[in-house]
Every structure is written in C-alpha cells, then in structure tokens.
Amino acid sequence: MDGAGSFGAGRAGSAFDLTAFIKQPQTILRVLAWIFSMVVFASIINEGYVNMGSERLHCVFNKNADACNYGITVGIMAFLASIFFLALDIYFPQISSVKDRKRAVLLEMVFSGFWTFLWFVGFCFLASQWSHTSPKELPLEQASDAARAAIAFSFFSILTWAGLTVCAVQRFLLGTDLTLFTTEHMGDLPPKQPYPSNDVIGQTTIPVDAYQSPTLIETVETRPPGYKIPPAF
C-alpha cells in the first residue's frame, strides 16, 4: 500500500504533481464544466434578451423571464462551484484526517448529483421554451445563436456533471475500503498502546539471572559426619 491513501488520494503531505493532476479525468471534467457553465450564462446575459422597438427587453425563450433567469442562475452557480471544487481537489491530498476527506467527498458527490439534475431541468426548460418561440413575436435573428448555444451547452453540462458524480462515487467507495485506512491517516485516533506482558498485574518481572543459585562453598559445617578428606597425591 505504499503511496496509497484514503478516498482516492495520495498520502497526506505528499508532493503535489501538477502533470498527474491535470491528466486526471476528474480535473478534465471539472474544467469542461467550468467552461460550459460560462458559455450558458454568458450567452443568455449578452444576447439572450431582445427588444421590440422599446426599451423593455424580453427573454428570447418565448418571452419567459423565468427561463433566462434559471439558465443564468444555474450557470453562475456551476461556474463558481467548479472553481471551488477545483481548488478543493488541489488541497485534498494535504488533508490528513479521514473524516475530513470523507466529508469533502460526500459534499462533492451530493452537489454534483444535484447539479446534474438542475442542468437536466434547465435543458428541458430552455428547449421547451425555445420550441414555443415564434419568429413573429420576437426578432430571433438577434439572439437565435445565443439561445441555441445555451441549450446545447446545457446538455453538455449534464454529461460533465454526471461524470463528476460518478468520479465522486468511485472516490467514496474507494475510501470505504478499510485497507486504505493506514495509520498515517488516523490522526483523530490515539496511538495504540503495546500489548501487556505476561506478568501478573502488580508483580514485577524478575530476570532469569536473578534465580541463579549461589556458589556452593565447602566448609567444615557442610561435611557429613565421618567424612574424611582424601589424601592428595
């Protein structure tokens, strides 16, 4: 498990590899989601409103201001969220706590799934309103390209945010693998105490050398009665 960490990232404190980070599918999808969201809300803001010979502007999507407001709001929020989660991806390997990593992945998973749903609703909403827009009521030559771009990139945003949701789910499932919960990431847990010795509680271990019997010294008192010292040759 050398070099492996929890929730799909390297060990905490490891050096940041820009090349490997850019090549990650998650990073590519994040950048695409950022670009697509910018195209959607910028197209509507710049060319999504037309006038009918007066100062009052009408939303190009069947004069429904809610359609334009929805596309702008979802697009701007997705734009800001992409920047936030991109920064979080860069900082993620520096998070040492497994609990904090889990919260970050859960936040990304829930937000990505929810925004996939919002983009799906937005695509259906904009496409429906555009299909009911009549050239007789609005001068569509002024904003037709912007409307089509907003609808197209809303659809592309569904794919990118769905891909980000899949990546987040994979990271979450990878993080729940207990083999990845190394001791280096268990910052919230106290260090384990060593196993106690086989000694009885309250007793002190005595070294084996301490049980050596004393050297026998032959004295007169230790000789049995009638014992005679053999003569020396």
From TrEMBL:
List the membrane topology term(s). Multi-pass membrane protein
Please report which protein family the annotation says this sequence is part of: Belongs to the synaptogyrin family.
InterPro entries assigned: Marvel, Synaptogyrin
Where, by residue number, does the polypeptide cross the bilayer? 31-50, 70-92, 104-130, 150-169
Q: Which residues form the MARVEL domain?
A: 21-173
Look up the record and report any one GO term of the cellular component aspect: neuromuscular junction
Per the record's keyword annotation, is Transmembrane helix included, yes or no?
yes
**Alphabetical keyword list:** Membrane, Transmembrane, Transmembrane helix
This protein is called Synaptogyrin
Q: Does the keyword Amino-acid biosynthesis apply?
A: no
